[in-house]
Amino acid sequence: MLQLDFKDAASDHSASLGPAQTFKFSRSVVCDESRGHVLATYRSDQWEIEGSLYTGFQCSRPSRIYFEDATGRRSYGCGPFAGIVVTRGALHIGHQLFAHYQNRTQLWHCYALSSDWPVMILKATTAAEAYAAA
Predict the structure, then answer these.
(1) Can you tell me whether residue 39 is helix, strand or coil?
(2) Are strands 2-7 and 56-59 parallel, antiparallel or unpaired?
(3) Which has fewest Cβ within 10 Å: 6, 22, 40, 63?
(4) CB 24 within 8 A of CB 40
(5) In whole numbers, what is the pLDDT of the chain averaged over residues?
(6) Quick one: 7 exposed, middle or buried, by C-beta within 10 A (0-12, 13-18, 19+)?
């Protein structure tokens, strides 16, 4: 199961989303894919959760990343990764920039795939898979 840990760079304020098997980042919102309801909204380089703002989040649990086009077709799974960090829309795997959310177009640009996508999916995987790939 995944958990997203949100933090505000200017304060000690934090929040967590999850646990969930899959988080779906559809344009400017994030949902627990199994429940479908909006958990957070991204605007002006900040995540809003229940009225509080956060500059980024991390997920330190093993996961794979998929992207989806407007018709629902998915990319192949990237990863598995031991953890991810997202700050101001920039998604890093370790020290490498992997994807970036573009406010103007509301699309995720994946550098590994050299393409833009309206949906990014973060899906739980096993620790053994993530550490074997590292």
Answers:
(1) strand
(2) antiparallel
(3) 22
(4) no
(5) 91
(6) middle
Chain centroid to CA 30: how far? 8
Give the C-alpha separation, 67 to 75, whole Å. Answer: 5
**How many domains does one find in the chain?**
1
Determine if the peptide bond prior to 62 is cis (ω within 30°): no
pLDDT tens digits, 68-80: 999 999 999 999 9
CB atoms within 10 A of CB 103: 14
DSSP string, 74-113: BPPPEEEES-EEEETTEEEETTEEEEEEETTTTEEEETTT
Q: What is the span of the domain harbouring residue 121? A: 2-133
- Which two three-digit tokens encode residue 62? 């093993």
Per-residue pLDDT reduced to its tens digit, 114-133: 999 999 999 999 766 655 65
